[in-house]
Amino acid sequence: MADSLRRLISAESGRVLQEKLESWYRNYEFNSCDQNLNRCCEILELSSEIQGQLFAILNETSREGGQYAGVETIKTRLLPWLVPCFSCSSSGRIFETTLTQDLIEKERQLRELSSNQDFQLQELQEELTSTRLKLNQVQQDLKISHAKEKDAQKKLDCLNDYEHQIQMLKDKISILDAEKSLLQSRLARSRSPSPRHRENKSLSPLPLRSCPPGRARRTNASRRACLITRFGDIYDHRRLDAETFLKTYISDVEMVHRIIYIAAVESFHAAKMAYRQFKLRVTETLSLGHTGPESLEDTVLDYIIDHEDLYDVQASVNEVIRSMNINPKVSFPPEIDFIVISTLIRELCRVAFSMQTLVPPLDIAFGIDGELFSETKYHRSFDSDFTAALVAYHVWPALMENDIVIVKGEAVTKRGALWSCRSRSRSRNTNRTRSCSRSRSTSPLLAHHGVN
Hints:
mainly alpha, three-stranded mixed β-sheet, disordered C terminus
């Protein structure tokens, strides 16, 4: 196309046409009719040649643009001009026919493409409608499934309530059975036989029968779960309250943690000692006239569970405070005493005492400073060195059942924990005399509390 246009410019046909038009205009009045007609025919022939070259350039340009390029321009500008008034030489007419045929073919292809697009658009609309119907159906099914799930959840909640009520009724029945057996044993003791009848009865062999488990064993699982929950509540609430209170008097956070941990350890120790003594007294008392269907061990356990209010928890609290006063690992300002955390100690003693009535009993893990950190026993405190392998000190003991961890404790790990523990023990041994003398003189708060 560029070459054809360059040849048209180099031929200077437009300039020649302009000069002929100007010459014809100047001599138009002086020429005869034949001369003017000849001049007009010359100008038409020249313009026809220029138009032929321009149509050739137009054809090449439209081909270079592609199959559908320039269709709208040809339809709106060229065809309206060609139909009424175009007339040229034979070469121009041949080009016009060719161009018209190309335009007709392009229009046909454009109509086919438009019809195909309309058909595809209609198919897409139908598919979209079908998809929307399916989506609505799925949403309706989902609503129905949600409704069914809610109904099932309500039924499940009702079932859980029924199971809870059944368990409560079973517990009440077991309590009534235990009271019945206790009353029967008391009735049997009140009806003591004569010595002669007792001698005759002793000569006959006793029937071998298995003793059914008591109420303590039947309710062991529920009491165990309740006590574990109470132990966790003490860690979450009572411990934090005691820690907050101690920080008002002691600025050393490590010392506060050590005091609470040692209080927990000493509380379990005092509660276990009190339980052994209490169980021994109950066993000696009940063994004198035990004739019930249950074994003596189960009867003793049932009695302890029913009479836990007879446990002298204040004596255990005093014992814990006395042990903490002589412990070289902890120290307190002289103006206050360990009695300030007696609420925490009392709750720990009660829980520890009740844990001894379980089968098997629950106990806390043994821990020492500088021991190897165990992921199964403890959580690391937030201020720990998570790359250290040794325990600097403990924050809360782990709860155990036959060497199996039930509830993890909390410990602080630091590098050089063993060396720091040794240096602390040396420095605190110098103050042990002062702490021992302070422990011998009971504080007024402790004395007043003990009197009450």
